[in-house]
Amino acid sequence: MSLSTPTALDRAPWEAPLAPVASRFARLRARARCEALARLLPRSVLFAGAPRTGRGKRVALTFDDGPDAMTPLCLDALDTLGVRATFFLIGANLAATGDMAAKYVSRGHEVGGHGWSHQSFPSLSPYELLDEVERTEALLPSPRLGPKLVRPPRGEFSAGTLLRLAAAEYVTVLWSVDSDDCRTRDPRVIEQRLAPGRVHPGDVVLLHEMQPWTLEALRGAVGALRAKGFDFVTVSELMKEDIHGQA
Ligand SMILES: [Zn+2]
């Protein structure tokens, strides 16, 4: 019997409990709050997608919670699809997987931090918050081509965390489309969530690593979006679009 505590690295994904299903109202409310804040605050503080009125059909796929045992499969799947994405990585996972961060970047992807231990940012003291973020950042490849990106675990943030992170030159990155891949293990449901019509130009799409059903959904979802003329870019590339949607 192992005395160590199981981590995301040694737990099979289908053994983990699914996140509770959010009501449609809760989803719309969260989205409206996020969009309102993103309109009020500069992109150097908070980014949750480019304007949907943009002329380019560019979206950013983002994957949270890696690296893990399935990361090589995920990178291979994205290579096959010809998609570059942005990965928000957990510091403790990075420390356990050697030079994995460099592998994401060498395959053309962008990386950002997701906290050291996946604790809710608003629950941390100012010192703890910066410690979580800086220790993770130190394991990411440097020099970074774009701004320092960080995604708060579960998307939980406060005015205090936004300001503290911005003062330390981190952009807090949320999302505008939730694939729901932590609430279902059915690839068809995820594919529906990412169908053209639900995903719009300028969107940032939330996905998770270590989930075979997410990879299974990707091929159909990417194919359908690409057939409608969508391009897949990194978060910092999407951030460069101006308010008229031009890069
Ligand atoms: Zn997470």
Report on this structure.
- There is one protein chain.
- The protein is α/β, with parallel strands linked by helices and 247 residues long.
- The chain has one domain: Alpha-Beta Barrel (TIM Barrel), CATH 3.20.20.370.
- Helices cover 36% and strands 14% of the residues.
- Strands 2, 3, 4, 7, 8 and 9 form a six-stranded parallel sheet that branches. Strands 1-6-5 form a three-stranded parallel sheet.
- β7, α7 and β8 form a beta-alpha-beta unit.
- α7 packs parallel to α8.
- It is globular and about 45 Å long.
- The N and C termini lie far apart (55 Å).
Give the names of the bound compounds: zinc ion
Q: In CATH terms, what is the architecture?
A: Alpha-Beta Barrel
Q: Tell me, rounded to a whole number, the average pLDDT.
A: 88
Here the CATH topology equals TIM Barrel
Q: How many alpha or pi helices?
A: 9
Radius of gyration: 17 Å
What is the element string, with H for helices and E for strands?
Answer: HEEHEHHEHEHEEHEHEH
**Amount of helix:** 25-40%
Unreliable stretches, pLDDT < 50, 5 or more residues? 1-8
First CA to last CA: what distance?
Answer: 55 Å
Quickly give the structural class: alpha/beta
The largest β sheet comes out as: 6 strands, parallel
Q: How big a fraction of the residues is strand?
A: 5-15%
The CATH homologous superfamily name equals: Glycoside hydrolase/deacetylase
Q: How many strands?
A: 9
CATH classification, class level: Alpha Beta
Question: How would the global form be characterised?
Answer: globular
Write down the domain tally: 1
